[in-house]
Amino acid sequence: QVQLVESGGGLVQAGGSLRLSCVASGSIFSINAMGWYRQAPGKQRELVAGASSGGTTNYADSLKGRFTISRDNAKNTVYLQMNSLKPEDTAVYYCNADVASSPLLPHNYYRYWGQGTQVTVSS
Fold first, then answer.
1. Closest by alpha carbon to 22, among 40, 35, 12, 39?
2. Cα separation, 52 vs 14, whole angstroms
């Protein structure tokens, strides 16, 4: 099995910053993409940012310039640096990872999710 554990959420004032971390552990042979999603109350879960194992990143258009995703492949960890936070960024933030647990070919990747970490931005 594979576990993803997020940390770094909390309460911050508008204009502040937070850095989220997500560590993957367990039966891991290889990790392909890792990313962050968020879900605000009453809304659907939406993509925040993603990062491939090779370093390619993508972002929700509305978040470009404020949020930065990065990875430490040696630590199976993905980060989300969030700056200039706004009240509308309040949500539960989830990380995910596409993980292959076996070295046997073909490599089958499965998407795992963390439990989420609450980010609350006060006005």
1. 35
2. 30
Mean pLDDT by 10 residues, the chain (123 residues): 96 98 97 97 96 94 94 96 97 97 90 98 96
User: Using one digit for the tens of pLDDT, what is the confidence trace for 84-106?
Assistant: 999 999 999 999 999 999 888 88
Contact 46, 31 (CB under 8 A): no
Measured CA distances, 121 to 8, 10, 71, 99 (Å): 13, 8, 24, 32
Residue 91: Cβ within 10 Å count: 22
The SS3 call for residue 118 is: strand
Distance of alpha carbon 17 from alpha carbon 59, whole angstroms: 18
CA-to-CA dists, residue 84 to 1, 71, 81, angstroms = 36, 21, 10
